[in-house]
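1st attempt posting a full record on here, be nice pls
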Amino acid sequence: MHTYEITFLVEAEKHAKEVVTLIGSTGATYKQTKEWGERELAYPINKHSKAFYYTGTIETIPTNIAEIKKKLNFSELLIRFLLIKQEE
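the predicted structure (as tokens):
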């Protein structure tokens, strides 16, 4: 199992739980959420000027990462996301 850090932006707070459920549906374990709150975006993204920021930790096998990224890319709940592998 490898540990990854994910930061994602959603339009509304209620979408954060749905994103966590989406990640869990791939077999990954989502841990430790930190909510940054609503912030102004530096520039508009898909006509959004504000977003709710969240950071969390995912534990999964490396082969699941492609599936997680694919599901997150096709999800209309997310404005943006960043997934980074943490060093051991």
